[in-house]
Design goal:
Blueprint: E1 3-7, H1 11-24, E2 29-33, H2 36-45, E3 50-54, H3 62-72, E4 78-82, H4 86-95, E5 100-103, H5 109-122
Parallel strand pairs: 1-2, 1-3, 3-4, 4-5
């Protein structure tokens, strides 16, 4: 079973991603975080196949969470989501340890493709 943790401070975004994931991956188990503190706590105390984190959230944001997650669970794949252009943040995200950076305008295909790539790498 695929276990995915979604972190975004906007309920509508979390719900949209949940729907997308349950449509695409019927066996998915989804956790949710509404801020950076909750994200770091959940990501580092449970086993997740993929963490999807918004770049800008209360409590520090995606890069702060990425750093903390990678310190405690370095093998947990993290995807960073943002409305900001990829040219601005994608390289920084991957250098910081993220498996990918997805602009929210490329949803749903960009997210589904990135998750499928991570699943294939784990196999």
């Amino acid at each position: 079973m695929l276990r995915v943790l979604i972190a975004d401070d906007h309920d509508i975004i979390r719900q949209g991603i949940k729907q997308l994931l349950t449509d695409e991956f019927p066996e998915v188990e989804i956790g949710e975080a509404i801020d950076t503190t909750t994200l770091v706590e959940l990501a580092t105390t449970s086993d997740w196949d993929i963490v999807i984190s918004d770049l800008v959230m209360p409590g520090g944001g995606g890069f702060y969470a990425l750093e903390k997650i990678k310190q405690k669970t370095p093998d947990t794949p993290v995807l960073i989501l943002s409305t900001h252009p990829a040219e601005q943040y994608a390289q920084r995200a991957t250098k910081a340890g993220a498996e990918g950076f997805i602009n929210k305008s490329t949803l749903p295909n960009g997210l589904v493709n990135a998750i499928q790539e991570i699943i294939e790498k784990k196999k």
